[in-house]
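Fold it.
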Amino acid sequence: MTRITPDLLSQIRARFAQVEACPEQGERVFFENAGGALTLKSVVETSTRYAAIPDNQGRDNPGSHALVRTIASAREDMAAFMNAPGGQFFVGESGTELLFRLIMNICLGVGQGNGIVLGTTLEHPATRSAAARWARVAGLEHVLVAHDDATGTVGAEAYAAAVTADTRVATIVHTSPVTGMGVDVASVVDAIRAVAPECFVIIDGIQHAAHGRIDLTAYGADGYVISPYKVFSRHGYGVAWISDRLTALPHDSLIGGPEDNWEMGTRDTGAYATMSDVVGYFEWLGGQVSDATDRRSKFVAAGEAIHAQEAALCHAMIHGTGNLPGLAEMEKVTIIGGIDNPAREGLASLVVDGVPSVEVVARLNAEGIRTHLRKDDHYSGNILTPLGLDSCVRVSMCHYNSVQEVAKFLEVMKRITG
């Protein structure tokens, strides 16, 4: 496999909008990818094209027929990209809304007042809140396994210690949006199924999707949800995949309508079309970094190249580049999840001793480096409060970022911590 070379990186960056400059701020380095990745130029063009179409799906006219073909093609693209074993893809309001809907229908569908809904303290409130609410409504017990504060992740052994034969629903976050650490979801699902083989498993893939390497067949779960604006598309919709057995559970639908339909009302065909743009980008990238000829191999190659590029960026940020010291060499800096953590996916959350995180973010922004403040609120308190922190600075990268951008960040951090 070929790594992402400087020439290829230039080609990659040329495919994204607003790579080097914000229309409001001007020139800047974008290290806020976990809050929403850059958008493919093709997505912008596709969104504009479909926004002009007045036709709806399901009519007997050429325009409507074309929309139906677009949706069918996008579903095939997503199935290939994520290696889906049957089931179905559909879109909703957002990733959060879809996670709530999947968890709600499972909790209500597995039987009232008997069993456990299992999750962890690592998870985003989208799954934790949904599980807490619908477990209570369905009379189920909601159990949260504690994540490892030191590593910023959770392993299969933690799930294995808590799962019981009456575990009906389990939730997993693929990558934490606060620590940036990934979870070995396949091993977690195996640990759950070993004790509760009929348990429905839902994976929050929202933070992970931009890093590639999605394999639904290998995971063996029943649901996987992403937010397209975090994987090079746009705001305004979420995407869910659900297994055949989850599809068959009772769910909100129109009387007399198709029983397997999980979408509510007419959806935006442009949303589906932009997902084909995203899948096409991964396929293109895989062809640039490998000699693969089939789609699946290209997707795998793209994911591996993205992982290698982001690992190199993280290494430069933590251990330094050129004559610039890395975060690990700055005495005042503490990196959440540790310095050398193999679970890290393109993200470093940090605190600076003696300098409030809100000030660090502001000073970086004033120097044209976009990062984000995470506070001990309902989004991040589950991670920060056990560490005794009221906030942290989240620096999130993606494969289109460069070592030169990391160097700019380190130059400013050297002054902030000096």
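The radius of gyration is 22 Å.
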